[in-house]
Write a structure and sequence with these properties.
This protein is mainly α and 96 residues long. The protein contains three helices and no strands. It has a domain of 55 residues.
């Protein structure tokens, strides 16, 4: 998933249009920091933002990987069920 704007705790919510705009601007800023790291120290507050952004990105990637693994294991478990077991549990059967 691409970079996105992560609201600061306590920050008021934004409308969908502004959320998408913030996500887009965040992707641009992230790309700039990756391609021209020398700029980071030249802009007040950018180094702090960049460190926090990288931390949140790493956290998001870990969460996404864990969710992907959970879904893979669930699908694997469903594949082991017989049609009768799946029906009894009320789960969609994954064909083997």
């Amino acid at each position: 998933m691409p970079c996105r704007y992560d609201p600061v705790p306590g920050e008021p919510g934004t409308g969908l249009y502004y959320r998408r705009l913030l996500d887009e601007m965040t992707r641009y800023l992230c790309a700039m920091c990756q391609r021209a790291p020398e700029v980071i120290e030249d802009v007040d507050g950018l180094a702090t933002w960049w460190e926090e952004h990288q931390r949140r990105d790493a956290e998001r990637r870990r969460e996404e990987a864990a969710e992907h693994e959970r879904q893979r294991k669930a699908q694997e478990a469903r594949a082991k069920l017989t049609d009768e077991e799946a029906a009894l549990l009320g789960v969609a059967q994954t064909r083997r």
